[in-house]
Amino acid sequence: MCGIIGYNGFRDADKVLIKGLKRLEYRGYDSAGICVIDKKLKIYKDTGEISKLEKNIPSFKGDIGIGHTRWATHGAVNKINAHPQLSDDKKIAVIHNGIIENFKILKEDLKNKGIKFKSQTDTEVIANLIKYNYKGNLENAVYSSIKKIKGSYAIAAVCEDEPDKIVGARNESPLIIGVGDNENFLASDITAILKFTNRVIYLNDGEMCVIAKDEVTVFDEKKKKLDRQEQMINWNFKDAEKSGFPHFMLKEIYDQPDTINQVLRGRVSEINRNIEFNENVEDLLKNGVDSINIVACGTSYYSGLVAKYHIEQFTKTPVIVEFSSEYRYFGTKNKNSLVIGITQSGETADTLGALREAKKSGCRTLVVTNVTGSTATRISDAYILTQSGPEIGVAATKTFTAQILVLFLIALKIGVNKNEIGPGELYKHILDLKELSRIVREVLENSNKILDIAYLLKNAKSIFYIGRGVNYPLALEGALKLKEISYIHAEGFAAGELKHGPFALLTKITPVIAIVTKDSTYDKMITSIGEVKARGPQVISIADEDDIEIEKYADFVIRFPSNTRHLSFIPIIVILQLIAYHVADMKHCSIDKPRNLAKSVTVE
Ligand code: M6R
Q: How far apart are CA 282 and CA 335, in angstroms?
């Protein structure tokens, strides 16, 4: 949720920190602040976006500092509660991502010892706890303090009396070290430091680190030094730029032909006529997959629902898809089941919790994620990367497409392993997959009509999305995308369910977006559209280029290329993303940073 960056090197720390915070703003953006050590701790913080902070910030001299962008959990959004938080003697500054569950008890205890508090944050408690434990060595004080803390945290601390180091610690919140030449970094997210280095060291839960200019040291939970190897990240800094697009979201929608190629590369082999994953994944998909549980949140949950249709269709294996937050506490954990966690960030607290519970019960776990080295990849038996590059827009677009495509490949692979898909059928799928990137490019190149539709929708108070089969979760995702970024109320429904209740909400001014594909659901969808029209709303249909009939039933039609067979879910989702984007753009909404949302939800 919150973003963290620390810098110790030879550059102006304030400039590095602001650059990093701009990259992290998508994690949370209600307030932000930095602290630079220039003999004393110099702090500047403010509410609002980083651009506001940048405009007003005094120029600090100093080559070491920490910065934070906040998504409030404890305490209102104001300057006092923004990070960094200071100890009461102003000698220790701390930034923090996470929630300290026992902060009230700790605060009372510190108050009884005479410590005065200014903010409502749990972070100020950490700063004062470190001050209380400080006896001339910051890492020792941080170590003693984290032993008292219960909850999730990624923290970075600096001390006026030791101006040559930053101390970091993590538990259930992401924190990485960026390694440079005569400069080192600490960050919650690779994108914050990608401009300066792509050499990283991942911290694990319970670990601590000391960031000096020319050295980084990692300690385990017993404060024993660890020998940790750096890893190279193959994300490109340019991938985290807008490249001329007005918003990251639009850029990321247009990235999708490449995203598709990235997902298929090395996994779909026309020569071998096979779907290939790494050995760990192949083993998991081979051995007795009798049932599958999918756990995920938000858009990733809808990926799971899309996958359920494909896996059940191609493999005859039952699939249960659950919200991570529900599965974690209530889901049936059958140890013969394969549990697939889907998470773009690899850091969503609910999904990590669900995966840990699954592991505890003896289930095998597979993760589909976009982030190398993320916590999800480290707590599961195997993982598949969606290889989409950084996604900055809070609304997931290209990573959703990559997830549903990876999961489609998993469905094919299990189908082959279970002899439900023969070589001929697999080869047809492979040939179709090879066309996919071109098809999506075509959709993007011919998307002008979507602007007219967006114009029609922009003043609606409520919009329904309907579909059947695999188009039902697409309807859910289309509606989520629209409500997230345009603030228009939108709901996705299984078309057959309308008559069981939602019809009561339909009026002439409730546009309905109907996803219609030329398959076994076609006739039923036409019936549903008829039922809707009888109640007055305008129907916008997303349909196959070859579908002439649809013009008779829908008021407007957006086309996708024909002959996509099983893969129509990909061009359809791109169309739904574009509808949401253009409606939000026409309403002048904050598209990349919608209100009250954060890209990665690292607290429960
Ligand atoms: O990183 P994750 O995929 O685990 O995140 C899950 C959800 O928070 C995420 O998909 C959210 O719903 C997106 N903002 C949707 O656009």
A: 19
